[in-house]
Design brief:
about 325 residues, alpha/beta, 6-stranded mixed beta sheet, about 20% helix, about 25% strand, globular, disordered C terminus, binds 4-methylsulfanyl-2-ureido-butyric acid
Protein backbone atom coordinates (compact mmCIF):
# COMPACT_ATOMS: atom_id res chain seq x y z
CA UNK A 1 0.00 0.00 0.00
CA UNK A 2 1.59 3.29 -1.09
CA UNK A 3 1.65 6.27 1.27
CA UNK A 4 -0.48 9.07 -0.12
CA UNK A 5 -1.42 12.57 0.99
CA UNK A 6 -4.41 14.36 -0.45
CA UNK A 7 -3.23 17.96 -0.31
CA UNK A 8 -4.43 21.31 -1.66
CA UNK A 9 -3.14 24.81 -2.22
CA UNK A 10 -5.95 27.20 -1.28
CA UNK A 11 -5.23 30.22 -3.44
CA UNK A 12 -6.78 33.43 -2.12
CA UNK A 13 -7.69 36.29 -4.46
CA UNK A 14 -6.99 39.91 -3.50
CA UNK A 15 -7.86 41.08 0.02
CA UNK A 16 -8.71 44.76 0.19
CA UNK A 17 -7.41 46.94 3.06
CA UNK A 18 -10.95 47.41 4.40
CA UNK A 19 -11.80 43.71 4.60
CA UNK A 20 -12.18 42.46 8.15
CA UNK A 21 -10.53 39.33 9.57
CA UNK A 22 -14.00 37.83 9.94
CA UNK A 23 -14.73 38.35 6.23
CA UNK A 24 -11.40 36.85 5.22
CA UNK A 25 -11.81 33.86 7.54
CA UNK A 26 -15.23 33.17 6.00
CA UNK A 27 -13.54 32.96 2.59
CA UNK A 28 -10.88 30.64 4.01
CA UNK A 29 -13.52 28.36 5.51
CA UNK A 30 -15.27 28.09 2.13
CA UNK A 31 -11.96 27.04 0.56
CA UNK A 32 -11.35 24.59 3.40
CA UNK A 33 -14.80 23.04 2.96
CA UNK A 34 -14.34 22.68 -0.78
CA UNK A 35 -10.97 21.02 -0.22
CA UNK A 36 -12.44 18.69 2.42
CA UNK A 37 -15.25 17.74 0.03
CA UNK A 38 -12.50 16.51 -2.26
CA UNK A 39 -11.08 14.39 0.59
CA UNK A 40 -8.14 16.73 1.19
CA UNK A 41 -6.20 16.09 4.42
CA UNK A 42 -3.90 19.15 4.34
CA UNK A 43 -4.74 22.64 3.04
CA UNK A 44 -2.06 25.24 2.36
CA UNK A 45 -3.11 28.89 2.64
CA UNK A 46 -0.94 31.83 1.47
CA UNK A 47 1.59 34.13 3.15
CA UNK A 48 0.01 36.95 5.19
CA UNK A 49 -3.36 35.33 4.51
CA UNK A 50 -5.47 37.35 6.90
CA UNK A 51 -4.93 40.85 5.52
CA UNK A 52 -4.03 42.73 2.41
CA UNK A 53 -0.26 42.61 1.65
CA UNK A 54 0.37 45.61 3.92
CA UNK A 55 4.18 45.80 3.40
CA UNK A 56 3.25 47.73 0.26
CA UNK A 57 2.39 50.72 2.50
CA UNK A 58 5.02 53.00 4.00
CA UNK A 59 4.46 53.83 7.68
CA UNK A 60 7.37 55.39 9.58
CA UNK A 61 5.94 54.39 12.94
CA UNK A 62 5.51 50.62 13.17
CA UNK A 63 3.33 50.94 16.25
CA UNK A 64 0.72 52.59 14.00
CA UNK A 65 0.52 49.37 11.97
CA UNK A 66 -0.43 46.97 14.76
CA UNK A 67 -3.85 46.35 13.19
CA UNK A 68 -2.20 44.17 10.52
CA UNK A 69 -0.61 41.87 13.14
CA UNK A 70 -1.88 38.94 15.21
CA UNK A 71 -0.95 39.00 18.89
CA UNK A 72 -2.39 35.53 19.50
CA UNK A 73 -3.00 32.51 17.29
CA UNK A 74 -5.77 31.66 17.04
CA UNK A 75 -7.32 34.94 18.13
CA UNK A 76 -11.13 35.19 18.32
CA UNK A 77 -11.57 36.04 14.62
CA UNK A 78 -9.38 33.13 13.42
CA UNK A 79 -10.78 30.58 15.90
CA UNK A 80 -13.66 29.62 13.52
CA UNK A 81 -11.10 28.43 10.96
CA UNK A 82 -9.45 26.20 13.57
CA UNK A 83 -12.85 24.91 14.70
CA UNK A 84 -14.08 24.09 11.21
CA UNK A 85 -10.80 22.40 10.24
CA UNK A 86 -10.94 20.24 13.37
CA UNK A 87 -14.59 19.30 12.64
CA UNK A 88 -13.59 18.31 9.10
CA UNK A 89 -10.45 16.52 10.28
CA UNK A 90 -8.24 18.61 7.99
CA UNK A 91 -4.80 20.00 8.82
CA UNK A 92 -3.60 23.33 7.44
CA UNK A 93 -0.72 25.77 6.92
CA UNK A 94 -1.43 29.45 7.46
CA UNK A 95 0.74 32.53 6.98
CA UNK A 96 0.15 35.68 9.03
CA UNK A 97 1.90 38.70 10.55
CA UNK A 98 2.97 37.95 14.14
CA UNK A 99 3.50 40.54 16.89
CA UNK A 100 5.00 38.83 19.93
CA UNK A 101 4.33 39.75 23.54
CA UNK A 102 7.77 41.36 23.78
CA UNK A 103 7.27 43.48 20.67
CA UNK A 104 8.96 41.49 17.88
CA UNK A 105 7.39 41.39 14.44
CA UNK A 106 7.71 38.41 12.13
CA UNK A 107 6.29 37.15 8.87
CA UNK A 108 5.14 33.81 10.27
CA UNK A 109 3.50 30.55 9.25
CA UNK A 110 2.10 27.69 11.28
CA UNK A 111 1.22 24.07 10.68
CA UNK A 112 -1.95 22.80 12.34
CA UNK A 113 -2.76 19.09 12.47
CA UNK A 114 -6.18 17.50 11.96
CA UNK A 115 -6.98 17.78 15.69
CA UNK A 116 -6.54 21.56 15.61
CA UNK A 117 -3.16 21.52 17.40
CA UNK A 118 -0.39 23.89 16.23
CA UNK A 119 2.51 21.50 15.60
CA UNK A 120 5.00 23.82 13.91
CA UNK A 121 5.91 27.47 13.55
CA UNK A 122 8.22 29.23 11.08
CA UNK A 123 9.36 32.86 10.90
CA UNK A 124 10.45 34.02 7.45
CA UNK A 125 14.19 34.16 6.91
CA UNK A 126 14.63 35.70 3.44
CA UNK A 127 12.94 39.09 3.67
CA UNK A 128 12.91 40.76 0.24
CA UNK A 129 12.43 44.39 -0.71
CA UNK A 130 13.52 47.43 1.23
CA UNK A 131 13.68 48.97 4.69
CA UNK A 132 12.82 52.44 3.34
CA UNK A 133 10.46 53.52 0.55
CA UNK A 134 11.84 53.72 -2.99
CA UNK A 135 10.72 56.68 -5.13
CA UNK A 136 7.26 57.98 -4.36
CA UNK A 137 6.48 56.72 -0.86
CA UNK A 138 2.75 56.83 -1.65
CA UNK A 139 3.23 54.30 -4.48
CA UNK A 140 3.03 50.56 -3.71
CA UNK A 141 6.27 49.44 -2.09
CA UNK A 142 7.80 46.20 -0.86
CA UNK A 143 8.87 47.00 2.70
CA UNK A 144 9.30 43.62 4.38
CA UNK A 145 12.71 44.68 5.69
CA UNK A 146 10.98 47.53 7.51
CA UNK A 147 8.07 45.57 8.91
CA UNK A 148 9.69 42.29 9.95
CA UNK A 149 12.74 40.93 11.73
CA UNK A 150 14.61 37.99 10.24
CA UNK A 151 13.08 34.80 11.59
CA UNK A 152 14.72 33.27 14.65
CA UNK A 153 13.33 29.72 14.50
CA UNK A 154 15.41 28.25 11.66
CA UNK A 155 13.96 25.99 8.99
CA UNK A 156 12.04 23.24 10.75
CA UNK A 157 10.37 20.00 9.69
CA UNK A 158 7.29 18.81 11.57
CA UNK A 159 5.20 15.66 11.79
CA UNK A 160 1.70 16.52 10.65
CA UNK A 161 -0.61 13.52 10.91
CA UNK A 162 2.24 11.16 10.09
CA UNK A 163 3.81 13.14 7.21
CA UNK A 164 7.07 15.09 7.52
CA UNK A 165 6.35 18.65 6.40
CA UNK A 166 8.83 21.50 5.98
CA UNK A 167 7.72 25.12 5.83
CA UNK A 168 8.95 28.31 4.24
CA UNK A 169 7.43 31.56 2.99
CA UNK A 170 7.37 33.26 -0.40
CA UNK A 171 10.83 34.61 -1.25
CA UNK A 172 12.39 31.63 0.57
CA UNK A 173 11.22 29.47 -2.34
CA UNK A 174 13.79 31.08 -4.63
CA UNK A 175 16.75 29.97 -2.47
CA UNK A 176 18.18 26.50 -3.11
CA UNK A 177 19.54 26.26 0.44
CA UNK A 178 16.03 26.33 1.91
CA UNK A 179 14.83 23.13 0.27
CA UNK A 180 18.15 21.37 0.96
CA UNK A 181 18.08 22.20 4.68
CA UNK A 182 14.50 20.90 4.85
CA UNK A 183 15.35 17.78 2.80
CA UNK A 184 18.28 17.01 5.09
CA UNK A 185 15.72 16.75 7.91
CA UNK A 186 13.66 14.26 5.93
CA UNK A 187 10.96 16.59 4.63
CA UNK A 188 8.55 14.76 2.34
CA UNK A 189 6.54 17.85 1.46
CA UNK A 190 7.53 21.53 1.50
CA UNK A 191 4.59 23.90 1.90
CA UNK A 192 4.68 27.64 1.35
CA UNK A 193 2.52 30.68 0.78
CA UNK A 194 3.45 33.72 -1.29
CA UNK A 195 2.53 37.24 -2.38
CA UNK A 196 4.45 38.12 -5.55
CA UNK A 197 3.72 41.61 -6.91
CA UNK A 198 3.86 42.21 -10.65
CA UNK A 199 5.42 45.65 -10.37
CA UNK A 200 6.99 48.08 -7.94
CA UNK A 201 8.59 51.55 -8.22
CA UNK A 202 11.72 51.17 -10.36
CA UNK A 203 11.04 47.48 -10.90
CA UNK A 204 8.63 46.41 -13.60
CA UNK A 205 9.33 42.75 -14.35
CA UNK A 206 7.86 41.13 -17.40
CA UNK A 207 4.86 39.08 -16.17
CA UNK A 208 5.64 35.87 -18.00
CA UNK A 209 9.17 35.86 -16.66
CA UNK A 210 7.78 36.25 -13.13
CA UNK A 211 5.59 33.15 -13.55
CA UNK A 212 8.30 31.03 -15.13
CA UNK A 213 10.82 31.99 -12.44
CA UNK A 214 8.26 31.13 -9.75
CA UNK A 215 7.51 27.70 -11.23
CA UNK A 216 11.17 27.03 -11.96
CA UNK A 217 12.01 27.65 -8.29
CA UNK A 218 9.36 25.19 -7.10
CA UNK A 219 10.29 22.56 -9.68
CA UNK A 220 14.03 22.74 -9.01
CA UNK A 221 13.46 22.58 -5.25
CA UNK A 222 11.19 19.53 -5.59
CA UNK A 223 13.38 17.60 -8.02
CA UNK A 224 16.78 18.29 -6.48
CA UNK A 225 15.49 17.30 -3.05
CA UNK A 226 13.12 14.43 -3.87
CA UNK A 227 10.07 15.95 -2.25
CA UNK A 228 6.66 17.42 -3.03
CA UNK A 229 6.17 21.20 -3.05
CA UNK A 230 2.81 22.85 -2.46
CA UNK A 231 2.68 26.61 -3.06
CA UNK A 232 -0.36 28.83 -2.43
CA UNK A 233 -0.63 32.39 -3.77
CA UNK A 234 -2.38 35.43 -2.51
CA UNK A 235 -3.15 36.53 -6.02
CA UNK A 236 -5.02 39.08 -8.08
CA UNK A 237 -5.49 42.77 -7.41
CA UNK A 238 -5.22 44.30 -3.94
CA UNK A 239 -5.84 48.02 -3.59
CA UNK A 240 -4.83 48.46 -7.26
CA UNK A 241 -1.62 46.40 -6.91
CA UNK A 242 -1.45 43.23 -8.98
CA UNK A 243 0.05 39.91 -7.84
CA UNK A 244 0.74 36.71 -9.73
CA UNK A 245 -1.32 33.56 -9.24
CA UNK A 246 0.15 30.24 -10.26
CA UNK A 247 -0.55 28.27 -7.09
CA UNK A 248 0.93 24.88 -7.85
CA UNK A 249 1.69 21.37 -6.65
CA UNK A 250 4.96 19.86 -7.85
CA UNK A 251 6.08 16.25 -7.63
CA UNK A 252 9.55 14.92 -6.75
CA UNK A 253 10.03 14.47 -10.51
CA UNK A 254 9.92 18.28 -10.73
CA UNK A 255 6.64 18.18 -12.63
CA UNK A 256 3.78 20.59 -12.01
CA UNK A 257 0.89 18.19 -11.41
CA UNK A 258 -1.77 20.81 -10.64
CA UNK A 259 -1.90 24.57 -11.11
CA UNK A 260 -4.41 27.37 -10.50
CA UNK A 261 -6.43 28.44 -13.52
CA UNK A 262 -7.06 32.05 -12.42
CA UNK A 263 -6.10 34.64 -9.80
CA UNK A 264 -9.14 34.38 -7.51
CA UNK A 265 -10.08 32.10 -4.62
CA UNK A 266 -9.40 28.57 -5.90
CA UNK A 267 -8.64 25.11 -4.52
CA UNK A 268 -5.82 23.37 -6.38
CA UNK A 269 -5.62 19.77 -5.25
CA UNK A 270 -3.84 16.51 -5.88
CA UNK A 271 -3.23 13.15 -4.26
CA UNK A 272 0.51 13.17 -3.63
CA UNK A 273 2.19 9.78 -3.82
CA UNK A 274 4.77 10.14 -1.05
CA UNK A 275 6.54 6.96 -2.13
CA UNK A 276 7.37 8.50 -5.51
CA UNK A 277 10.42 10.11 -3.92
CA UNK A 278 11.99 6.76 -3.00
CA UNK A 279 13.49 6.08 -6.43
CA UNK A 280 15.13 9.52 -6.54
CA UNK A 281 16.41 9.21 -2.98
CA UNK A 282 17.86 5.78 -3.70
CA UNK A 283 19.78 6.76 -6.84
CA UNK A 284 20.44 10.15 -8.35
CA UNK A 285 19.83 12.06 -5.11
CA UNK A 286 21.12 9.51 -2.61
CA UNK A 287 22.50 12.17 -0.26
CA UNK A 288 24.52 9.71 1.84
CA UNK A 289 26.31 8.37 -1.20
CA UNK A 290 26.86 11.47 -3.27
CA UNK A 291 26.79 14.71 -1.28
CA UNK A 292 30.17 16.35 -0.50
CA UNK A 293 29.50 18.91 2.25
CA UNK A 294 33.24 19.41 2.76
CA UNK A 295 33.26 20.97 -0.74
CA UNK A 296 30.42 23.36 0.02
CA UNK A 297 32.10 25.43 2.75
CA UNK A 298 31.57 28.72 0.92
CA UNK A 299 27.84 28.29 1.28
CA UNK A 300 28.01 28.88 5.02
CA UNK A 301 31.18 31.01 5.09
CA UNK A 302 30.22 33.59 2.46
CA UNK A 303 27.08 35.63 2.01
CA UNK A 304 27.84 37.69 -1.12
CA UNK A 305 29.80 37.05 -4.28
CA UNK A 306 33.58 37.27 -3.77
CA UNK A 307 36.89 36.40 -5.34
CA UNK A 308 37.57 32.91 -6.71
CA UNK A 309 39.09 30.62 -4.12
CA UNK A 310 42.63 29.51 -5.09
CA UNK A 311 42.69 25.98 -6.48
CA UNK A 312 45.54 23.87 -5.08
CA UNK A 313 48.42 23.45 -7.54
CA UNK A 314 47.22 26.20 -9.86
CA UNK A 315 48.70 29.66 -10.23
CA UNK A 316 45.81 32.12 -10.14
CA UNK A 317 45.52 34.07 -13.40
CA UNK A 318 45.05 37.80 -13.06
CA UNK A 319 41.44 38.70 -13.77
CA UNK A 320 41.84 41.32 -16.49
CA UNK A 321 39.12 42.93 -18.55
CA UNK A 322 35.47 42.28 -17.92
CA UNK A 323 34.92 38.98 -19.68
CA UNK A 324 34.89 35.61 -17.96
CA UNK A 325 38.02 33.50 -17.84
CA UNK A 326 37.84 30.89 -20.58
CA UNK A 327 38.00 27.42 -19.07
CA UNK A 328 40.42 25.03 -20.74
CA UNK A 329 40.30 21.26 -20.64
CA UNK A 330 43.95 20.36 -20.38
CA UNK A 331 45.02 17.74 -17.88
CA UNK A 332 46.47 20.37 -15.50
CA UNK A 333 43.25 22.35 -15.22
CA UNK A 334 40.86 19.47 -14.81
N1 LIG B 1 6.44 38.28 -0.37
C1 LIG B 1 7.59 38.02 -1.05
O1 LIG B 1 8.54 37.50 -0.48
N2 LIG B 1 7.60 38.38 -2.36
C2 LIG B 1 8.77 38.30 -3.18
C3 LIG B 1 8.79 39.41 -4.18
C4 LIG B 1 9.60 40.52 -3.72
S1 LIG B 1 9.71 41.80 -4.87
C5 LIG B 1 10.70 42.92 -4.09
C6 LIG B 1 8.90 37.01 -3.98
O2 LIG B 1 10.01 36.48 -4.03
O3 LIG B 1 7.94 36.59 -4.61
Amino acid sequence: MRRQLSVAAAQVGGIQPGETREEVVRRLILLLEEAAARSTRLVVFPELTLTTFFPRYWAQDLASTDRWFETEMPGPSVQPLFDRARELGVGFYLGYAELTGDGHRYNTSILVDSTGRIVGRYRKIHLPGHARPVGDEQAPQHLEKHYFEVGDLGLGVFDVDGVRIGMCLCNDRRWAEVYRVLALQGAEVVVLGYNTPLGLPGWQPEPHHMMSAHLLSLQAGAYQNSLWVVAAAKAGVEDGAEMIGGSALVSPAGEVVARATGTGDEVVQTVADLDLAAAYRAEIFDFEAHRRPDQYRLITERTGRGAPVPVPGQVPEPLTGHGPRIATTTQETR
